[in-house]
Amino acid sequence: MTAEILCVGTELLLGDIVNTNAAFLSRELARIGVGVYCQTVVGDNAKRLEESLALALSRADIVVMTGGLGPTYDDLTKETVAAYFKLPMERDEKALEQIKCFFHKIGREMTRSNEKQAEIPKGADVFYNKWGTAPGLAVSQNGQTVIMLPGPPSEMKPMFAEYALPYLEKQSGRVFLSRTVRLFGIGESALEDLLHDKMSRAKNPTIAPYAGVGEVSLRITASGADQEACERLIEPVLQEITEQVHPYIYGVDVPNMQFALVRLLQERKWKIATAESCTGGLLSARITEIDGASEVFDCGVCSYANEIKQSVLGVSAETLEQYGAVSRQTAAQMAAGIRKLAKADIGISTTGIAGPGGGTPEKPVGTVYVGIDSEKVKKVLHLKLAWRNAEDERQTIRHRTALHAFFEALRLAKEV
Amino acid sequence: MTAEILCVGTELLLGDIVNTNAAFLSRELARIGVGVYCQTVVGDNAKRLEESLALALSRADIVVMTGGLGPTYDDLTKETVAAYFKLPMERDEKALEQIKCFFHKIGREMTRSNEKQAEIPKGADVFYNKWGTAPGLAVSQNGQTVIMLPGPPSEMKPMFAEYALPYLEKQSGRVFLSRTVRLFGIGESALEDLLHDKMSRAKNPTIAPYAGVGEVSLRITASGADQEACERLIEPVLQEITEQVHPYIYGVDVPNMQFALVRLLQERKWKIATAESCTGGLLSARITEIDGASEVFDCGVCSYANEIKQSVLGVSAETLEQYGAVSRQTAAQMAAGIRKLAKADIGISTTGIAGPGGGTPEKPVGTVYVGIDSEKVKKVLHLKLAWRNAEDERQTIRHRTALHAFFEALRLAKEV
């Protein structure tokens, strides 16, 4: 099966917002074996919308549309689809009820124009919206399927998962399940080299790699009669992969490394503390991004100045003088110092040259030391993170430093 | 003049990456008065690429393409455009030289396949690439223009500014200049209400609002014979707008609030220090994102636990007991405490309930206090930042808290 994605919205054409919906939908569709061959964005213009829909349906089995389901006269998605399939519009009373409830919930008055949002092409499947006002819709005729979802990602994403995905699964007679293995410390091509045979042989489940900034994911997707059948297919493959690349795996089905770290520390009932120079608070900001962080994190110090490294973290004046702030010795003392100050189980520290200025021939931009301190383990990583893309270099160095620091902390908490 | 954007890349169709190029190009084209009516993404497929190009050129004067300029056989952009305009391909020696130089610069060997990147449609304008290997190209014939840029945003964006924009300006016989006024504390619709007459009357320069998360921008764009003529047109409008909404303006032509703050503090030779609870290091992470931050920032403390608020920042046990950690009194003592610890000119603090848990009827999720402390000014803001979108609520509350804190610090540094 093939699909095209058709996003409707003047704000996309003006470049006011980035089209994250197309990427999300493409990825979800690829996962369930539906190839996306074209993504199109058009504005709220009847003729162009009509043309684009007809063109997409001439090439693909499924068209997933987002946007244009709002209450105003220039929201035309439903009307265009109804006209294409020659369906009259009719009111769906349950949708109207849902819209009224939503306004009640957010404590606002429903306006007359919102009633338009309860009009649907006759016979369409209605996806009642719990996250906003516009219901989603699906129409299938003669092997052509159009799915319509609201434009805001905060409504579109849950509605895709709750309604559109089961709708497509029902059409295909199969359900799909994915698990995502997240890895650090191995590049995408090295991972592909390692798993090449497995990946190319894999039909069900499939194995697909995704490259992030400084990390890689593997998505294992099975299709089967039900969730359990999928799980049975995935399990042995996940196990094999785990055996093969386990030193690089930081989590399965976790959104990011800080999430994996916070959850593991919660399990361990351990506390972590951060002492940051070049990352400047990025470590603590990421840890506290995760709800529940307060159970594992009491204190972070961003000691940008040497004086603070001394007065707050207890780095010695001799160390700073002899080895400099960007050194193995300073990183070690920062990590030990913050662990003591915070009475934590693990202290992690960063000190380095994030650029663009500050580099020297001995310590060029990208020179970073990451310190780890626990009762049993004391360790300093020496990283060389220079990155050729000048524009983002500072942010990339800081980001990669954070990944290294979290990965070391995870490793430490796992090993014990 | 109208344009369409045609992005080529299988990684976009798979949803591996989000198409930020389309938004960037749409915005840049809108700025110079070129309306974008359609954005399309296709993969590395000869037939579909050919069809999409022909369709786009049948509807628009200009097609801006990104991607598909790589060295491999499935990079087809140039070849497709050459075929459309019936131009032979030929080698551009200067482009080849540039590619060799680039590989030399990054210390890697050029491969044979990269030679393909120096092949161009005969007679095309070549945009030599200083940021990567693939040169950009422009072909104009019979009122149809195709501009080809590399896919990576770090190459595409500077190449658009340096080559494509002047190329389009040359065609239109005018140059364009924009200035962006950044505002905080006023919503997009309130701003439009205030400036409605001015905005709808404005022809040259034009005035366009853009809504960000928690902030708004106004872009003033003039067209004229040269940069100076544009500046003369913009100046009085910028001045009028400044007079009308100056309490909300945090900067002109600055990328974000932390940039404006760091630059102003550098000017003032002031130091700032941060004491963070609910933002957990976000303030210090953002300040240190800006190069030069070390001149204005020595120390930030993320005091997530009450004990740290007491031991490191000197918040009194009585205050914590009587008013709680999330209170006006605690915020004030945190700001004063960090200012003293860091020997800074300004101390800023945050304490609040970012959610999803931790709310109470008296202090629901979104209750935040921001403290500001300087020698002359001591102030605490009480914010209510609850946001209905559950998924992002925690991050949105933290983000908005940071904006409020930085804005107050900016105001303080400006007033003196």
Task: Provide the CATH top-level class of the largest domain in chain A.
Answer: Alpha Beta
Task: Determine the structural class of chain A based on helices, strands and strand pairing.
Answer: alpha/beta
Number of helices of chain A: 14
Cα radius of gyration of chain A in angstroms = 26 Å
- Poorly predicted segments of chain A: none
For the largest beta-sheet of chain A, the strand count, sense and barrel status come to: 6 strands, mixed
What global shape of chain A is seen? elongated
Q: What is the terminal separation of chain A in angstroms?
A: 48 Å
Total domains of chain A, how many? 3
Description:
The structure is a homodimer of 416-residue chains. The first copy, chain A, is an alpha/beta fold and 416 residues long. The first copy, chain A, folds into 3 domains: 2-172, Molybdenum Cofactor Biosythetic Enzyme, Chain A (3-Layer(aba) Sandwich), CATH 3.40.980; 175-252, Alpha-Beta Plaits (2-Layer Sandwich); 257-415, Maf protein. Chain A contains 14 helices and 17 strands. Chain A has helices spanning 10-13, 20-31, 46-59, 77-84, 93-105, 153-172, 188-201, 227-245, 257-268, 282-289, 306-311, 317-323, 328-342, 393-415; strands at residues 2-8, 35-42, 62-66, 89-91, 119-121, 125-127, 136-141, 144-149, 175-184, 206-211, 215-224, 249-252, 272-276, 297-303, 346-352, 367-373, 378-384. Chain A has a 6-stranded mixed sheet, sandwiched between helices. In chain A, helix 10 links the parallel strand 13 and strand 14 (297-303). In chain A, helix 2 packs parallel to helix 6 and helix 3 packs across helix 4 (77-84). Chain A is elongated and about 80 Å long. At the A-B interface, helix 2, strand 2, helix 3, helix 10 and strand 14 of A face helix 2, strand 2, helix 3, helix 10 and strand 14 of B.
